[in-house]
Amino acid sequence: MIKKLAIFFLFFAVNAMAQTKGVVKDSLTGNPIAYVSIWVENENIGTTSEENGEYHIGTNDKNKNLIFSALGYQKKISKVSESQIVLLSPSSFELDEVTINNKKEKKQQEIGKTKNTVAEAFDNGPRMDAKFFPYYPEYKKTRWIQKAIIMTDSKIDDATIKLHLYDVDENGFPGNELLTKDYIVTLKKGITKSEVDLSDFNLEMPKTGIFVVFEKLLIKKNKVEKTITNFNTNTTKIQITYAPLVLYNAVERDFLFSFSGGRWLKRTREEINPFSGSKTVYEPSVTLILTN
């Protein structure tokens, strides 16, 4: 059973005069970079660059910093006043040696299921919430990550979302990206369960665990506009949200890791629900399929 509870926040209903616009390009080739994550430093204001590298973000305070990050490029922090053209430098890294095994994939197990089968849809703005998958010894016989499965609710067809996989750093926070390139997932309209094939990456379940994150792409293609009428004042306004909504499950946790303002935050249960006596937090409805 899926309970649909859409909660809309007007994170994106920002006056056009309070926006900064620019373009993100590769510093070597000059080509535009699509789907760059852009944040106002230490604030829950974010956006994503379009396929042509252009972006708009809801601040015009020239003294604030913008943080630009994209897989395969070095993170860059730039003043708003200097962000009309942003050049990102490609990252230089050495690929680990990959051993290709003749995996027969006879065994499979799905991990990350919750006892609570009721899933709720929230629009949390640009914030990204991580789901942690701990490692257990029984994963030894099915140690390869084959698929990620996500539950979403989309008002439009072909909405897109970006998948991130992170290892665990020395402080228990999401650390390094485990994928070597952006993984953009296209989703169907409605409430759907989507399987994302990860077998080509040859990813072994880390013994320190793994974080799975789905990032909403705040681009024109995903924009959903709805006219809201105030019958008391006889006025209307346009409410803007972005598809898809990720479904969440209530689980017993003390905290949740969220990415906002260009950094990971450890949000305690009391911070998330200050007036609630509940022992639960909401985490993304995501599972993993492991295979041998």
Question: What would your notes on this structure say?
Answer:
- With 292 residues, the chain is mostly beta strands.
- The protein folds into two domains: 16-88, Carboxypeptidase-like, regulatory domain (Immunoglobulin-like); 108-291, Jelly Rolls (Sandwich).
- It is built from one helix and 23 strands.
- The chain has one helix at residues 269-272, and strands spanning 20-26, 37-40, 46-48, 54-57, 65-69, 76-79, 85-88, 108-111, 119-122, 128-133, 144-154, 159-168, 174-177, 183-187, 190-197, 210-216, 223-230, 235-242, 245-252, 255-260, 263-268, 280-284, 286-291.
- The strands form five sheets. Strands 8, 9, 11, 15, 19, 22 and 23 form a seven-stranded antiparallel beta sheet that branches.
Total domains: 2
Helix content: under 10%
| Total E-strand runs | 23
Distance from first to last alpha carbon: 31 Å
> Beta-strand level of the residues, as a percent range?
over 45%
Largest sheet: 7 strands, antiparallel
> Secondary-structure element order, as H and E?
EEEEEEEEEEEEEEEEEEEEEHEE
Named CATH topology of the largest domain: Jelly Rolls
Tell me what the CATH architecture of the largest domain is: Sandwich
Task: Output the CATH class name of the largest domain.
Answer: Mainly Beta
Give the uncertain stretches in residue-range form: 1-16, 95-101
| Average pLDDT, all residues | 88
Radius of gyration: 20 Å
The global form is globular
